[in-house]
Amino acid sequence: MSRALVIGGTRGIGLALSDRLRTLGWNVRSTGSAVDITDPMAWPEFLEEQPYDLVVFSAGRLDVAPWGVKRLSDLLASYSLHAAAPVALLAAHGSKLLGWWSKVVFISTVGAVNSGAVDLGYGMAKAALEKAARALAEHSSWRVYLIRFDLVDTDMIRLLPGDTMDGRLALSPAEAADQIIREAEL
User: Fold this and answer.
1) What is this structure's pTM?
2) What is the CATH code of the structural domain delimited by 3-183?
3) Burial class (CB in 10 A: 0-12, 13-18, 19+), 5
4) Helix or strand holding residue 49 (H, E)
């Protein structure tokens, strides 16, 4: 049975993906906010005797506020969750967490390239995540997938101003999960 770790797998896209993988016969471990990926002391919590076949980084944070009132701590928290912690976790424990055959999936959004001023920290963090994913794809033995969505109907999207949708359709979390499964060839 294939083994997966879905970080951020208790809400939204991560929850839908965890559920979908289970229906496909995967043994899935899902983490939520109870395990803080930005705290290196929590990282041993992810390690088990056997490496995972798949690790998905789906945790998300969105602090909606005008860019002029953003605090450095808000920007750093978003950056840490979305980009720095996943890379640091893989650098510190990748050889225990993953086998050479394993897949790593990073989930991004259009916010990485088209961020409004109210979600600037999120957009900056997702842009950094995309750079990290491309670098890891070139320089690691794992098969790395970066999957970018436009809009997905999650609690986070409801925090954005109403004009964010601007006539665009949002995927359901289940549709996003199915897209991840297709693109990462799960």
Assistant:
1) 0.93
2) 3.40.50.720
3) buried
4) none
- Tokens found for residue 62: 């969105």
Q: Under a CB-based contact definition with an 8 Å cutoff, are residues 27 and 53 in contact?
A: no
Note whether 115 and 124 are within 8 A (CB).
yes
Residue in 11, 16, 6 with CA at minimum distance from that of residue 62: 11
Biggest CA pair distance of the chain: 50
Q: Which residues contact 75 (CB under 8 A, 6 or more apart)?
A: 120, 121, 124, 125
89 with 46: CB under 8 angstroms? yes
Structure tokens at 136: 């890891």
Show pLDDT as tens, one digit a residue, over the chain (186 residues). Answer: 799 999 999 999 999 999 999 999 999 999 988 889 999 999 998 888 899 999 999 998 888 888 788 889 988 999 999 999 999 999 999 999 999 999 999 999 887 777 566 678 888 899 999 999 999 999 999 999 999 998 888 888 777 777 666 777 889 999 999 999 999 999
* Cα dist from 122 to 22, 86, 127, 129, 137, whole Å: 29, 15, 9, 10, 22
Q: At what angle do helices 120-139 and 85-97 cross, to 10 degrees?
A: 30
Question: In the structure encoding, which two tokens stand for residue 118, read together?
Answer: 């109210």
**Which 3 state secondary structure label does DSSP give 155?**
coil
> What is the DSSP code (8-state) at residue 98?
E
